[in-house]
Every structure is written in C-alpha cells, then in structure tokens.
Amino acid sequence: MVKNTFSGPVRTGKDTGAPETTTIGTLVAVQLCTVSNLDTVNAVVLPPDCELVDTVAYVRTPTSVNATITIGVTADVARYATIAISSAAGVYRPGVASAAAWKAGTGMARANPVLVATSATSTFDAVVGIFYLQRS
Amino acid sequence: MVKSTFDGPVLTGRERDGTIGTLIAFQQVTINASDPTRQMYFPRGAILLDARVYYRVPNTGNGTITVGRTTAGSQYWSFPVNSAAGVFYQPFAVSAAGLIGGVVDPGGKVEVGGTFAGNFDAVVGITYIQP
Fold first, then answer.
1. CB nearest A21 (choices: B7, B23, B41)
2. Of A2, A29, A111, B109, most Cβ neighbours within 10 A?
3. How confident is the model over B88-108, as a mean pLDDT?
C-alpha cells in the first residue's frame, strides 16, 4: 500500500492568478484522541501555524452524569471548544466556545499540543476529533 | 520536491476494492464591517458539504450571514449574528432548494454576505469535495 505523507499543506484546485477562476482549497486533516474518566486529560500535537476547523466527540461509553469535554490551550481555560455530553452514546458537536484564545489567534491554534479534557468522573469513554488545516 | 497542489480531487483507497474516498477540502473568507460581502470560487461541479462561521468580533445587534449563489436569494446556508463571542456556530437554516445534491453552481461562485450593524468580524469556511 502506498502511503503519502506531505510535510506541508495539501491543496486542490487551480491557481490561475485571477480571483474569479482560482479555486484553490486546502485539504482538512484530523487527529484523534481518547478521553475517559480514568484518563481525563490527553493531548494532540498539531503542526505549527495550523488553523483549527472543527471538533467533534464520539461518545462510546456515555456517562451517567452530564459532563463536558474541553479542547484548548489548557484543559480548563483558553478553550477553543466546549462539548457538552449527556447520558447517551453518540456524536456530539461543540457549543459556543469561550473564544478568547481563538479570537486572539484569528482561528489559529496558538499552541501545540492542544489539550483535550473531560469533567466526567463516572464511567465514560469518548474519541475526540480535531480537524485542522496546515498552513505552511 | 513532493507535489502538494493537485488540480483534481485527491483520493484515498483502492479502486479494485471499491473503497475510494475523496479528501475534504476547505476554503474560507473573512467578512467584516468594511467588507461585508465576499465571493468564493469553487471548481466546476464541486460538492459543498458544510459551512461554519467563526465570530471573532461579535455584533451587538441582530443580523444574518448568508452563504449562497447570491446573498439575496438561493441561499445554501444562513447563520444568526448576535452579541455572543464564539466560534463553531452551526447554521440555523439550510434552504435546500439552493443546494440540491450539494453541487455548486456551474460557475462555481459562492457569495458570502452579512447584514449587521456596527463593528463585526467573522471567518466563514466551507468544506467541499472536488469532483
């Protein structure tokens, strides 16, 4: 099996030099990590100068008590996203983020690693996806 | 030098196994008080998947961000503008008539526009696949 690893961004489209016909887009990458009640803080290491696009949580073992997953420069502050988790397995999307860190960075991750943490204390397990663009 | 810009779709999988998938691409533009309407250009036949807005400077009044063939009609998505700072807002409405099958207009142009009062700044991003 051929594996292609690019050290920089991968783009698709054409750059004609004219804005009306230039269709360059950047391919989205994703990194996954898990958090659980036994392993409440984890990290993904993003490339420098990358830009966050989205986050999602796939809850495999739901918690019996509502909890949150936070994604940010630190686990408890400067969050990029907060995902509220209820007592059901499934896919969860972020609500409104406390965007102080994000705004300051105009969308860019200001630090790597990015920490992923959960407040769950009872049995809980989730996979968190962080989608991003590599810029350079 | 490894080529990292492709003028066609970037695929993954094996054709003989029927497991070919297309990697997702992303484009974004910034709109703000001084530049409230922007155009994005996609490849012919591009299939738009999703849109999202990152509010960098929120607005104290109500308003709307629209994404579509034009900002006035045939909208693909629309987003509320309000006073909450934040990112990751999901669209509150999709007028599917503008996006049947997800295929962008033949011309490939998508217009992003905001109606708001006062200072405001946001990044609007669209995920899509190249045909």
1. B41
2. A29
3. 57
Q: With CB atoms and an 8 Å threshold, state whether B4 touches A106.
A: no
Check A25 against B27: CB less than 8 A apart.
Answer: yes
Q: Supply the ipTM of this predicted assembly.
A: 0.80
Q: Rounded CA gap, B52 and B76, in Å? A: 12
- Identify all chain B residues contacting A99, using CB atoms and an 8 Å cutoff: 54-56, 85-87
pLDDT (tens digit per residue) in B73-88: 667 788 877 666 555 5
If you ran DSSP here, which 8-state letter would residue B90 be given? P
Structural domains of chain A in order of their starting residue, each with its CATH number: 28-134 (2.60.120.340)
- What confidence tens digit (pLDDT) does each residue in A92-133 have? 988 755 444 444 444 455 556 788 999 999 999 999 998 888
Contact A13 B7 (CB under 8 A): yes
Interface test with A, best of B88, B126, B128 (most A CBs within 10 A): B88
**pLDDT at B114 (0 to 100):** 82
Identify the CATH assignment for B27-129 out of 2.40.420.20, 3.30.300.230, 3.40.309.10, 2.60.120.340. 2.60.120.340
Say whether A102 sits in a helix, a strand or coil: helix
User: Any chain B CB within 8 A of the CB of A11?
Assistant: yes
